[in-house]
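This part of the workshop introduces the protein records we will be handling. Each record describes a single protein and holds just a pair of labelled lines. Instead of coordinates, the fold is spelled out as a row of discrete tokens. To make this concrete, we reproduce a full record directly below:
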Amino acid sequence: MGKILRSLPPLIPIPTSFHQNNMRFPKAIFHCLNPQHRSDLGFHVLSDRKTSEIDILSMVAALRSPHIIREEHPHAEFGMWLKLARMKKRKKAIQVAEHIGTTHTSIGAWERGDYLPTEGPILRKYAQCIGVRVAELRKRRSDSYWAYRMRVEGVSDISI
């Protein structure tokens, strides 16, 4: 998070955080005397206070920063399904990683859709740990990839 903030304009200081529904979200507090300046940057401020708290992800999206807005990965949908299956079993990523003999960072990368677990013993152990069949993992992975391709190809056919 610190790396992202260093690349943002100097208007945004180090974020604080707040808790909502037992989840932690980053927040940033910025000072700006001129409300017009805030709206020029694309910020939507609900009050006239000189100090306003704004969700940092919204600010970065408004500034179109490439550091936080990631392109969709081919397996992002499949990764989300993996995460939900793991959470349904009430297991943490580190517990699954220890069970199958890999690192929790690999589990996180699979769940984000950055890349997929390899075929073979790791995939079998992973399926066993999250309580699904290997055939279902393979089918969902394939379906997720083809759904992604249809979205990408559909967008690439549009011309102006």
User: Anything to note?
Assistant: The first helix runs from residue 2 to 7. Confidence is low (pLDDT under 50) at residues 1-71. Strands lie at 16-20, 23-31, 51-55. Residues 2-63 form one domain.
